[in-house]
Amino acid sequence: MGKYRISFSLLFTFSLLAGVTYGQGSDIVARLQAESSSMGRVEISQPANVANALRLYQAEHTSRPTLRGFRVRIYRGVGKEARKKSEVIMEQALSLWPGERVYRTYDSPYYKVSVGDCRTRFDALYLRNRLLSKFPEAFVIADVINFPPTLLDSTQSAPSAPPSK
After folding, report:
1. Most CB contacts within 10 A, which of 92, 101, 136, 161?
2. What's the CA angle centered on 151, arms 132 and 114, to 5 degrees?
3. Which residues pair with 103 in a beta bridge?
4. pLDDT confidence of residue 156
5. 66-151, which class in CATH?
6. CB of 159 within 8 A of CB of 61?
7. Using the 8-state DSSP alphabet, how is residue 97 labeled?
8. pTM here?
């Protein structure tokens, strides 16, 4: 039982590290095991299936790094005018809050406009309170979000489209 707990802990830890180092294009295990004169040497012993799972996870998340988080939904509409109204609301949100990412999606039959890439519900609630003056029906949703700009590799730009569900 303890062996599997350690393997799971290692996989979880490495998957978090893989998410933070997604843009660097290198294997995290190899980077950890590389000998450094100032840091010493790290040796990792893991079953082959854990190493393979880590490589698959890393490969899947390097092209489009995402994580679970929260957004603030400012519009959800259905009907003939919903598409046009969602475009207007998106433009309004972009002009009012230029520092925030705004996403417009179509999830049949709804057009939706959401704001932000919040890692915690607290951050999303803070954003919602800022948006309430212009969008009184705004509410927090759990969603798959893009990495916040502070975690992006400095050589890459932020993704322009929201992640697919």
Report:
1. 101
2. 25
3. 114
4. 47
5. alpha beta
6. no
7. -
8. 0.57
* Contact present, 79 and 86 (Cβ < 8 Å): no
The dihedral region occupied by 66, where left means phi > 0, alpha psi between -120 and 50, and beta the remainder, is beta
- What's the Cα-to-Cα distance from 51 to each of 41, 58, 62, 123, rounded to whole Å? 19, 11, 16, 34
Three-state secondary-structure class, residue 85: helix
Owner of token pair 């010493």: 40
Q: Is the separation of the CB atoms in 134 and 92 below 8 Å? A: yes
- Does residue 98 have a cis bond before it (omega within 30 degrees)? no
pLDDT tens column, 20-56: 444 444 466 676 667 666 777 777 788 888 878 877 7
Kind of pairing between the strands at 139-146 and 66-77: antiparallel
Q: Parallel, antiparallel, or unpaired for β 66-77 and 110-118?
A: antiparallel
pLDDT higher than threshold 90 for residue 75: yes
Strands 139-146 and 110-118, sheet pairing: unpaired
Could you tell me which of 141, 143, 147, 120 has the C-alpha nearest to residue 64? 147
